[in-house]
Write a structure and sequence with these properties.
The complex is a heterodimer of chains A (582) and B (460). Chain A is α+β, with helices and mostly antiparallel strands. In chain A, 34% of the residues lie in helices and 23% in strands. In chain A, a hairpin with a 5-residue loop joins strand 23 (370-373) and strand 24 (379-388). Chain A is globular. Chain B has helices at residues 131-134, 155-165, 186-199, 222-236, 248-261, 275-283, 312-320, 329-333, 350-353, 363-387, 394-411, 421-432, 445-451, 453-459, and strands at residues 3-4, 7-11, 14-18, 27-32, 38-47, 50-55, 67-74, 76-79, 86-89, 105-108, 119-120, 125-126, 139-140, 147-149, 175-184, 205-211, 240-246, 288-289, 295-303, 323-327, 340-347. The radius of gyration of chain B is 25 Å and the shape is elongated. Classes of the chains: A alpha+beta (582), B alpha/beta (460). Bound molecules: adenosine-5'-triphosphate, adenosine-5'-diphosphate and magnesium ion (2 copies).
Chain lengths: 582, 460
């Protein structure tokens, strides 16, 4: 018997998260409902009559012969008021709703829309009847949290002249605007996650994302709209760094994706963020945050989807003209999900079993970052920061290598540093930022005209120290010439005072640019005083043992540090003076 | 129940069955041998042409004449309160001569994931009485913290000491131990059982034993049975459960064996590409649920092949667990017990469970300072080997001596020495006091004033 294509077919084979259906009319990436329980899946391969589907839920107990139904739609997210403060799984099912429906454990076969379709939001139009609108034009606003949620014409809607626009309280499904050609617009629209949302133009990222992390802002800054990778072995600080960025970076919206990582880490974000304040606005951090949690023990296919769900939500807020930052912890788990699915498909494996398209997928993802002119001619950005978890901490593996080929900033975590509790364990010798040149002027104008010079000086000292350490390893530190012993001391101060930053100290966790500059300046002051004293014949041991500088580390943990710092500087001066005169 | 005699192929632990009615993925399978013995397996792949069954026991005796019965349901286990005090096989059958478990419930052994929204953050300090854990790698209730060890090292002694001494200071809630052995030797089994019996721990323990000479593939289900039991005790009966899984390396070897039999494309060093996901389905079954009384704390043991922490087994585990306690051969050779190397050890949940009102306000800073000083002293040992002690500065010499003191006094303790957290922290201060005060840059001034022995003595 000839199987005729239709939107209904039957299952032929089930092998974990990958199933095969026959008799189904399907296109690539169509969303399908699998089995009697209608589990959600997505078509990922078509081979003659065989339609191969990845299923976003556990497939235990599903049998050949059960029905499969094609929805004809692509995997899409719901975009509109209600996103902020939410926590979703990889396919945008709200975890809170799932808990209400099925209890403390995630069972399968439950669907839940990404946005509440019942909640009413106050819509305030910003356009009026007769106005001409196009794709992406903002037509109104909703005060969602402390964030103003801008409602736009979906980018795939042609637009036209407004016939009627309402004001008042509506659900996300109710029509708030009608165009002359009869098009009805709601506050919510759907967007397929695998398709980047269009923009008018990509611009050059030339404003830093200020993170409050000294080693990042100070030595290896990332631009708003830029891309960064943070690779490191387990326990080196990927998650803590990503969370610090989610907390303190001066983005207006944060999308945090827990991709194949620990459940407790997401719980921690959920309990901690509502208590924390945005240092810029003073508002609870949670109000600007969207969380995606597809933990390591949740279905792998949904893990694969989670990064797309996240970046689509990020692009949506960008299209409102916001600066969005997106953290993905960890992109390696995403790559592994691809590998797992690919091996079930019996595809020809590439390097280390990863599919040959790994590099392409990674670059497509990071390409969705950027500083843009939106369709509505506003400026917005998506900054993407991806954690990478290389097996054995070995950066030569495919995911790290393919990521480094794309991203502009590399924060290299180092187990040797984390083991000695030097945090953040970012190795200052291997890390780099390709944005230094483009951000030069910003620092010049917004921090200090001296900033770029002093930054370069600090890098130089640290590099010099690394060379000197090699000599020390052979002959011991006492054998170094006097001047270089001072360099070693200055480098120690840079490391212990400037670079080390405790993410768990209530004050040190965030350090604004002014304080960063003050600390660097003071270390520089010590260095100048030290070399000067040395020229004047003061013994190195006395210079290195200068008492006044012992108080400097405390500045990090002091909120109103200015007075203390002045005292330290004055004491340093006085002590050097006394030494020179003695 | 229909019985098929359509086995087409047997390879390692896998049996291929042809021409069946629709069979569910993951279904439990009974295999009846011609001599009447029954074995169990699970469906790994199902289609209208062929069904692949993974057998949990030895395939010896299975042939084309064996009968296959598909049970129509995924693997479930009977659980009940009367499991406490029982010894079961790695496949969950009574091994102590006692009666079958009276099931209060039958639960799917592939536990569903806890909804992250339903979790509560683990933050209750567990005192193990071991300084290198309590002071510098603190364990909290609901954490998963494995021991990374090597063959021939005293990880069992450490695990037993922890099981003996662990308590939440000031609480006397009901607790239980679930112990799952995978591929351990008879001798190791005796060591555990003797200690459980002597201390009376057995009364509130459930023991699953898969020994070295038991079928390797059974190890795939053993930890799942143990964790299903633990979740039942914790989240339905309200116990605080400590789960000890040993040895996870044997579990991973069984996983590799099945992958090889399926002719899968292997991942790193021959282990399946999905090993991370598979291990996560075990390790993630720990934690606390909002509004529920009990908790599941996981303490697994794994031996690192070749003492290599970058080997896929410890590596993938470390990426999932909430830290690790690393046992060092070098310290063991020096005769130090417990030979815990704090440098690569880590407790990720420590910050939530320590500090004022939980342990002591100086805890975090003392820990950081001990680490920094020990790491520095330890580095200098390499240098001394090259340039000799004389080439060191005074400062360096002090750190070098600190490292020795740290190992000799802080790390080293007796098998039955149960130090309170105050004792451990005070010991830390005593050692830090051998360094010049201005070198204690990780500790705030006021804490130094309050806890440094120099000022304490003055005050007293
Ligand atoms: N980024 C850093 N932060 C702090 N200390 C560092 C850093 N880089 C180097 N050091 C110091 O120098 C020592 C050796 O440096 P590093 O570990 O980078 O050298 P390596 O060449 O990788 O060593 P090995 O050859 O043993 O692998 C470290 O143990 C540390 O004391
Ligand atoms: N900036 C920091 N300040 C203090 N501690 C840190 C910092 N970064 C990391 N840590 C410590 O390192 C541990 C591991 O960090 P984590 O981010 O979870 O590592 P990863 O994600 O790379 O496995 C944390 O639990 C914490 O104890
Ligand atoms: Mg992490
Ligand atoms: Mg080297």
């Amino acid at each position: 018997m000839e199987v005729k294509g239709s939107n209904k077919g039957t299952l032929k084979r089930i092998s974990g998260p990958v199933v095969t259906a026959v008799g189904l009319d399907a296109h690539m990436y169509d969303v399908v409902k699998v089995g009697n329980e209608q589990l959600m899946g997505e078509v990922i391969k078509i081979q003659g009559d065989n339609i191969i589907i990845q299923v976003y839920e556990d497939t235990s107990g599903i049998r050949p012969g059960e029905p499969v139904e094609n929805t004809g739609l692509s995997l899409a997210v719901e975009l509109g008021p209600g996103l902020l403060t939410s926590i979703y799984d990889g396919i945008q099912r709200p975890l809170e709703v799932l808990m209400d429906k099925m209890g403390d454990f995630i069972e399968r076969g439950v669907s839940a829309p990404g946005l509440s379709h019942e909640t009413k939001w106050d819509f305030v139009p910003t356009k009026k009847a007769g106005d001409e609108v196009g794709p992406g034009t903002i037509i109104g606003e909703v005060q969602e949290t402390n964030i103003l949620h801008r409602i736009m014409v979906p980018p795939n809607v042609k637009g036209g002249r407004i016939k009627e626009i309402k004001s008042g309280s509506f659900t996300v499904e109710e029509t708030v605007c009608v165009l002359e050609d009869g098009t009805q617009l709601q506050m919510m629209h759907k967007w397929p996650v695998r398709v980047p949302r269009p923009v008018t133009e990509k611009k050059n990222p030339d404003i830093p994302l200020i993170t409050g992390q000294r080693i990042l802002d100070g030595l290896f800054p990332i631009a708003k709209g830029g891309t960064a990778a943070i690779p490191g072995p387990f326990g080196s600080g990927k998650t803590v760094t990503q969370q610090a960025l989610a907390k303190w970076s001066d983005a207006e919206i944060v999308v945090y994706i827990g991709c194949g990582e620990r459940g407790n880490e997401m719980t921690e974000v959920l309990t901690e963020f509502p208590e924390l304040e945005d240092p810029k606005t003073g508002k609870p951090l949670m109000e600007r945050t969207v969380l995606i949690a597809n933990t390591s023990n949740m279905p792998v296919a949904a893990r694969e989807a989670s990064v797309y769900t996240g970046i689509t939500i990020a692009e949506y807020f960008r299209d409102m003209g916001y600066d969005v930052s997106l953290m993905a912890d960890s992109t390696s788990r995403w790559a592994e999900a691809m590998r797992e699915i690919s091996s079930r498909l019996e595809e020809m494996p590439g390097e280390e079993g990863y599919p040959a398209y790994l590099a392409a997928r990674l670059s497509e993802f990071y390409e969705r970052a950027g500083r843009v002119e939106t369709l509505d001619h506003e400026s917005g950005s998506v900054t993407v920061i991806g954690a990478v978890s290389p097996p054995g901490g070995d950066f030569s593996e495919p995911v790290t290598q393919n990521t480094l080929r794309i991203v502009k900033v590399f924060w290299a975590l180092d187990a040797k540093l984390s083991q000695r509790r030097h945090f953040p364990a970012i190795n200052w010798l291997n890390s780099y930022s390709l944005y230094l040149d483009t951000l030069h002027d910003w620092y010049d104008q917004n921090v200090s005209a001296e900033w770029n010079t002093i930054r370069a000086w600090a890098m130089e000292v640290l590099q010099k120290e690394a060379e000197l350490q090699e000599i020390v390893q052979l002959v011991g530190s006492d054998a170094l010439p006097d001047e270089e012993q001072v360099t070693i001391e200055v480098a120690r101060m840079l490391r212990e005072i400037f670079l080390q930053q405790n993410a768990f100290d209530p004050v040190d966790t965030y350090c604004n640019m002014e304080k960063q500059y003050d600390i660097l300046k003071t270390i520089r002051l010590y260095a100048d005083g030290a070399y000067g004293a040395q020229k004047a014949g003061v013994a190195t041991a006395q210079i290195v043992a200068l008492k006044a500088k012992n108080d400097l580390p405390q500045i990090k943990f002091t909120k109103d540090y200015k007075a203390d710092l002045e005292k330290i500087v004055a004491n340093m001066d006085a002590e050097f003076k006394a030494l020179r005169e003695a | 129940m229909k019985e098929y005699r359509t086995i087409t192929q047997i390879a390692g632990p896998l049996v291929f069955v042809g021409k069946t009615e629709p069979v569910g993925y993951g279904e439990l399978v009974n295999i009846v041998q011609s001599d009447g013995t029954m074995k169990r397996g699970q469906v790994l792949d199902t289609s209208d042409e062929i069904v692949v069954v993974q057998v949990f026991e030895d395939t010896r005796g299975i042939g084309r004449d064996s009968g296959i019965r598909f049970t129509g349901e995924t693997i479930k286990m009977p659980v009940g309160r009367d499991m406490l005090g029982r010894i079961l096989s790695g496949g969950g059958k009574p091994k102590d001569g006692g009666p079958d478990i009276v099931p209060e419930k039958r639960l799917d052994i592939i536990g569903a994931a806890i909804n992250p929204y339903a979790r509560a953050s683990p933050r209750q300090f567990i005192q193990t009485g071991i300084s290198t854990i309590d002071a510098t790698n603190t364990l909290v209730r609901g954490q998963k913290l494995p021991i990374f060890s090597g063959s021939g090292l005293p990880h069992n002694e450490i695990a037993l000491q922890i099981a003996r001494q662990s308590k939440v200071p000031g609480s006397d809630e009901e607790f239980a131990v679930v112990f799952a052995a995978m591929g351990i030797t008879k001798e190791e089994e005796n060591q555990f059982m003797a200690d459980f019996e002597r201390t009376g721990a057995l009364e509130h323990a459930v023991v699953f034993l898969n020994l070295a000479d038991d079928p390797a593939v059974e190890r795939i289900v053993t930890p799942r049975l143990a964790l299903t039991t633990a979740e039942y005790l914790a989240f339905e009966l309200g116990y605080h459960v400590l789960v000890i899984l040993t040895d996870m390396t044997n579990y991973c070897e069984a996983l590799r064996q099945i992958g090889a039999a399926r002719e899968e494309v292997p991942g790193r060093r021959g282990y399946p590409g999905y090993m991370y996901t598979d291990l996560a389905s075990i390790y993630e079954r720990a934690g606390i649920i909002k509004g529920k009384k009990g908790s599941v704390t996981q303490f697994s043991i794994l031996t690192m092949p070749g003492d290599d922490i970058t080997h896929p087994i410890p590596d993938l585990s470390g990426y999932i667990t909430e830290g690790q306690i690393v046992v060092s051969r070098e310290l063991h050779r020096k005769g130090i017990y417990p030979p815990i190397n704090v440098l690569p050890s880590l407790s990720r949940l420590m910050n939530l469970g320590i500090g004022d009102k939980m342990t002591r306000e100086d805890h975090k800073k003392v820990s950081d300072q001990l680490y920094a000083a020990y790491a520095e002293g330890n580095d200098l040992r390499g240098l001394v080997a090259i340039v000799g002690k004389d080439a060191l500065s005074e400062r360096d010499r002090q750190f070098l001596e600190f490292a020795d003191l740290f190992e000799g006094k802080f790390v080293r303790q007796g098998h039955y020495e149960d130090r309170s957290i105050q004792e451990s922290l005070d010991l830390g201060w005593e050692l830090l006091a051998t360094l010049p005060e201005e070198q204690l840059v990780r500790i705030d001034r006021d804490l130094i004033r309050k806890y440094h022995p120099k000022y304490r003595k003055q005050g007293a």
